[in-house]
Amino acid sequence: MKQKLALVNGTIYNGYEIREDAVLLINQDRITGIVGKEAVPEGYQVVDVQGANICPGLIDLQLYGTGEDLFSAELTAESLEKINLNLLKQGCTAYMMTLATNTLEVFKEAIAVFRQTKPSAALGLHLEGPFLNEAKRGAHPAELIMEATLPILEDLLEGNDDVVKMMTIAPEKIKQECVDYLNKKGLLLSAGHSTATFEEATQAFDHGVKTATHLWNAMSPLQHREVGLPGAVFNHPKAYSSIIVDGIHVNYEAVKISKQAMGERLFLITDAVATCHKGIYQHVLNGDHFVLPDGTLSGSALTQLQSVQNCVQNVGIPLDESIRMATLYPARLIERSDIGNLEEGSMANVLVFDADFQVQQVIFEGETFL
């Protein structure tokens, strides 16, 4: 039920601002503002968060499922709704539902199901593939990787650009005319699963590719005579990159180096998958991460709040900056000023969590979920 709420007795993290003696006001589905304790208007229900942290709802631009619900394996409205609800309970209030390399028929079916279901917190679909480099395929089936052509892209995306909002591509494997077409359709393009040289990656970042997918994973290495895709990401003034901070996909020291090099251009994703024993992606939980049956690393078991926690506790990034890596910076990349912050007029998407990084309360579009 949407209502007028005043969240008191917490530390408010809003962009670059930290407020300890203030109140967050919510009116229906919008943020009303941040005011002093003495300035709470009449008619607001006061909610004491008992010293917890208050921040914008978290944003995740790459995940595949939660728990035992992998969207690509089910392709049903029910699986989408379950994933959506689980993510909201975790404090993730905006996300890109991601599908790894698959047949075009599966992609089309996923698009149709997504359009029909319209999961409330989803920003759209992120297609990670199939236009990748087989040499850096990781868990993606080699037989399903293909070369992008305009006819293939038109067949997949004509009339579907309201659903497909992001795509990971290998820049050395795609022609500029295809990049131009995808940009015209409004897709956010990300360089990943790629052997791109520094020059190839830099050219891509100069001509329509805005970010990179899971920095360090499934990409050309940074070496002293060829710095590859990571070097291009580090050196390009505008290129963003996502990174998986679970200590498994990327060593925490590498995260620290990446953060020092990229600053506000580095943002968090979970790359989270789900337990699945059917289809082409059979993910097996191996302690704190997922692998394919042959042992290939296939995804994380993270929540986005755990990503923030790892940044603080294992990388040494301050809490306010770690929060921005999961809120403000991805929102900036997708050009959304109404999420990822607690400014007046923004969506009332709010996460309340305690000092142990346990979710205490989630508000989505003004409605309380926990």
UniProtKB/TrEMBL annotation:
One GO MF term attached to the UniProt entry: N-acetylglucosamine-6-phosphate deacetylase activity
Domain of life according to the entry: Bacteria
Family listed: Belongs to the metallo-dependent hydrolases superfamily. NagA family.
Protein name: N-acetylglucosamine-6-phosphate deacetylase
Species whose genome carries this gene: Sphingobacterium tenebrionis
Residue intervals of the Amidohydrolase-related domain: 54-367
Keyword Hydrolase recorded: yes
NCBIfam families linked: nagA (TIGR00221)
EC number assigned by the record: 3.5.1.25
Pfam family, any one: Amidohydro_1
PANTHER family registered for this protein in UniProt: N-ACETYLGLUCOSAMINE-6-PHOSPHATE DEACETYLASE
The entry's keywords: Carbohydrate metabolism, Hydrolase, Metal-binding
Keyword Cytoplasm annotated: no
